[in-house]
Structures are given as structure tokens and as C-alpha cells.
Amino acid sequence: MWKKIIRSQKGQAMVELALLLPVLLLILGGIIEFGRIFHAYLVITGASREGARVAVVGETYDGVREKVIASAPSLDADSLDVLLEPESYGRGDMLTVTVTYPVDLVIPLISALLPDPFTT
């Protein structure tokens, strides 16, 4: 009788793997996409701070944009959008440097859950 029970459980591991593998791959894909988005967020934050430092000492808009692009070497320079508010400023004035960057999602199922491209 025990031999029948043992034989009938032969495919149990394969069925469990077939049920859990899609969930594990979805979690792994989510971790990868989150890491890519978070990396872009950190680089953009640092680049906008560098741009603000340059802007407060009296650099022009083009100089600020060049500094932001130079501070974000791992990102596509053509996709970086730099916005200064107010547009006319002087040395020591308060201003806001806003940098946006679209992150294209690679995992298809994750792109169904999040907007593609995800803008940081």
C-alpha cells in the first residue's frame, strides 16, 4: 500500500514548480524594474542638485543643463528634461531645478501594471 502512495506523488514537485514559477518570475521582474527606476531616481536627484548649485552662482540655463547632463552619465542625455523656475534669475536668487527622465520598462507584465515609460 505504501508503494502506491509514494508512486502517486511522483509529479508533485513538477506541479508545485509550475504553480510557483510564474509568481517567482513576476517578483524577480518587479525587483529588477524597481531597481532600474530607483537608480534613475537617485541619479536625477543628484544631477538636479548639481544643477541648482551651478545656477545659484549665476550660471546660464545652458550651463545648468550641461552640468545636469554631465552629472547623469548613466542616463540618456537626449531624454533628460531640465526646467528652471523662475526662468530669469540672478546670483543668489531662490530657484527650482526640475529634472524629469522617462524610464522604459523592460518586463512586459510589469509595464501592464505601471505606466510605460515611467517618468521619474
Write up what this structure looks like.
This protein is mainly α. It has one domain (13-119). The chain contains four helices and four strands; from the N terminus they run αααβββαβ. The strands form two sheets. Strands 1-2 form a two-stranded antiparallel ribbon. Strands 3-4 form a two-stranded antiparallel sheet. This is TadE-like protein. It holds the Pfam family TadE.
The first-to-last residue Cα distance is 62 Å
Low confidence ranges: none
* Tally of helical segments: 4
Mean pLDDT: 86
The largest pleated sheet is described as:
2 strands, antiparallel
The counted number of beta strands is 4
What's the order of the H and E elements? HHHEEEHE
What is the domain total for the residues? 1
Radius of gyration: 24 Å
What proportion of the residues is helical, as a percent range? 55-70%
Q: Which word captures the global form?
A: rod-shaped
Question: Strand-residue fraction?
Answer: 5-15%
SS class = mainly alpha
> Regarding quaternary structure, how should these chains be classified?
single chain
Kindly report the spatial arrangement of strands forming the biggest sheet: 1-2
Produce a short descriptive summary:
This protein has 120 residues and is mostly helical.
List the helices and strands and how they pair.
Layout: H1 2-8, H2 12-56, H3 61-71, E1 81-85, E2 96-100, E3 102-103, H4 108-113, E4 118-119
Antiparallel strand pairs: 1-2, 3-4
Helix pairs in contact: 2-3
InterPro entries: TadE-like_dom (IPR012495)
Organism: Desulfofundulus thermosubterraneus DSM 16057
Domain TadE-like: 11-53
